[in-house]
């Protein structure tokens, strides 16, 4: 009887040791980025900017890659009031261009290069890619609704005015009214770029983050 | 916001481009970096050892010595480096804190030296990482206890305690007999009398030789008077001691509830009960039983013996493990007793008359005592009896050392698990505090930002610089990001209390508005009533922090009612709709109200109940606003 319970304790101790080993195994994945000159040629950043970027990147992710969990954690630090995991998931997919489940420094730099140093066309392209969840070239209302809900989730609960249930849906309707020219229920890349270029607010806000680095 | 994550702020801001096509209003301007310096290496010379790091690394924590301008006091012009005449070993940990965001505590370091260094560099010890926090707290507690002990012994040796009341000196004398000679004397006297009392109890029962009449008498009855006098003397001393302790105790209630005082009471009660009760034949049996309690006087020795106290404390702390041991033993005993009973049921003149009667056999056998007063006679009984004794060896003898070591292991493990749970709770609480801190920082800076815009319009710029002193560049960039999110969704962040207030008030106001539209004017009056109530508490939006959006909105809505000429627009209004008519304001009022409008986003298209309102009227008024407002931050976009 006592022996049995004694054995139980011993087994439990073993189990905890196993999980510790598992965690250690996962952390041994390492990734080294391309050479600095290569990255400089591929992206629109200078060497110094790349250096600063890499230092910050490597500081937060010493293994050289960001997996989705870490990404969500990092992103949620910026939005303490709401829940940014869904939007971080979409962002992660937008950055993870080769869809291997992790964002390496090259993916990171290419994404930032488009966002900060790209032409307006490229930026709009990137945004379209973000909204098009299944990457089929069309933004449907459902996809847009998911994105919209993710954005509104980041606001959290304590907002003014109070967030209603169908606020995201209404926002999607507004969006589609503006973007969907031929009213076929989906937004293609050309419709998107065309409508955005007509809206001066959007054009102006695209230039907003020029000097972030 | 953690320091390491600050490096990802540019990424988060860049990713905000994803919101732009979705937003309906224009975005606020990004904060400009007033003096953008190239990142430079700075050299920190700590007692000859040179550390180098980037300037931005140190600026991650602006409220510490190294992160603020305080380090300029240590700048050495000749060598162009910062010189600190402090311990380089500890500085390593501190610099690592800036680099990684985690403060570690090296185990070889003295705790007070470490604390001093942390205080010098302006770092709070609470941010020590979880990996080292337990160690740090343990060492700190040990140190504090040692200091307290040192202080106490110092005080004792000094002997010149100023102006302790008589009561306090007595209590100190009782608790610590080494304080004065009188206390020591008292200590030894009570100890002596406890011993005397215990020996008396023991000797009382010894047969003391025969009295003429061939009867063997115990000493207690032979020398009854002598023993009675001795007992009386002891009890008198104990009573006096107890009463003195009761008088001197700083907290009498706590003293009465303490274990030692209960033991004291139980030790002297039997004597008094015996005195009170007459020598009645019926109760003499009970009286004799009471005398048993006199043996508790031996526990009074625990005041005199440190070892006894430690043993008691150990037992108390291992109580759960001991209880478990007892429980499993009880299970074994019951099982074997049942088996033996049924095995021996058949045999004649069996001593195993019932299962409880078999308990005795099982216990005696399992602990390998084997008195032999109960012995199985049937073959089955003997088989099970032998199994019982063998398993007794296993059950009791073998695991005892294992259990003893298990006790200490499990005990420490439990303590660690509890500590981990407490740590986790503390860590979650810290994360929550940090989160609320950062969101509060944003709300606070938003209000300051509003103040800025108001001041800008009224032409004073010195105050603006004064209010933005507190926020670093990273913070202002973060706030800009949150502001963009607000603009994208056309909702604003507010804090919890405001939110609850709003919920309550909007539920109050939605109730009347859910009736027919004809009541709208009445509804308008109710809002004016409510806002009038609020108006007493708020000043103009400019002068103080505009504490509640709702209040300022309602204030505006009252003014709106006063100057509106379009009753058609007031139909079927809810409180949310009200504010969208703020656009009419510039037409009627001066710049004071204009500043308040700036802060309120007015999305006519987004109000859920606003379908009934004719949309074309709003763009017309919106364009009015866009021409009259001078701020470039908020415009009601023409949709």
TrEMBL record, chain A:
GO molecular function: calcium ion binding; potassium channel activity
Family annotation (InterPro entries): EF-hand-dom_pair, EF_Hand_1_Ca_BS, EF_hand_dom, Recoverin
Domain EF-hand: 83-118, 119-154, 167-202
Chief place where the protein resides: membrane
Keyword Phosphoprotein: yes
Organism: Gallus gallus (Chicken)
Top-level taxon in the UniProt lineage: Eukaryota
PROSITE patterns membership: EF_HAND_1, EF_HAND_2
A GO term from the CC aspect: plasma membrane
Xref: SUPFAM superfamilies: EF-hand
Protein name stated in the entry: Kv channel-interacting protein 4
Family: Belongs to the recoverin family.
Organismal lineage: Eukaryota, Metazoa, Chordata, Craniata, Vertebrata
Record's keyword annotation contains Transcription: no
Membrane-topology descriptor: Peripheral membrane protein
SMART domains documented for this protein: EFh (SM00054)
UniProtKB/TrEMBL annotation, chain B:
Keywords: Cell membrane, Cell projection, Ion channel, Ion transport, Membrane, Metal-binding, Phosphoprotein, Potassium, Potassium channel, Potassium transport, Signal, Transmembrane, Transmembrane helix, Transport, Voltage-gated channel, Zinc
Ranges annotated as spanning the membrane: 182-203, 223-244, 256-277, 322-343, 355-371, 383-404
Main location: membrane
Lipid bilayer topology: Multi-pass membrane protein
Listed InterPro entries: BTB/POZ_dom, Ion_trans_dom, K_chnl_volt-dep_Kv, K_chnl_volt-dep_Kv4, K_chnl_volt-dep_Kv4.3, K_chnl_volt-dep_Kv4_C, Shal-type_N, SKP1/BTB/POZ_sf
Any one of the GO CC terms: voltage-gated potassium channel complex
Compartments it resides in: Cell membrane; Cell projection, Dendrite
Domain of life per record: Eukaryota
Amino acid composition bias (Low complexity), ranges on this chain: 512-521, 619-633
Signal peptide extent: 1-16
PANTHER family: POTASSIUM VOLTAGE-GATED CHANNEL SUBFAMILY D MEMBER 3 (PTHR11537:SF182), VOLTAGE-GATED POTASSIUM CHANNEL (PTHR11537)
Protein name: Potassium voltage-gated channel subfamily D member 3
Organism (species): Gallus gallus
